[in-house]
Amino acid sequence: MPANSKYLNPAFWPRFSKITAAILGGYFVSVSFHLALAAWFSRADVLITMAFSGFILWVALMVVAFLAKSGWKIWGIYILLTLLFCLFIYLGQTYNTTK
Question: Which pTM does this prediction carry?
Answer without folding.
Answer: 0.84
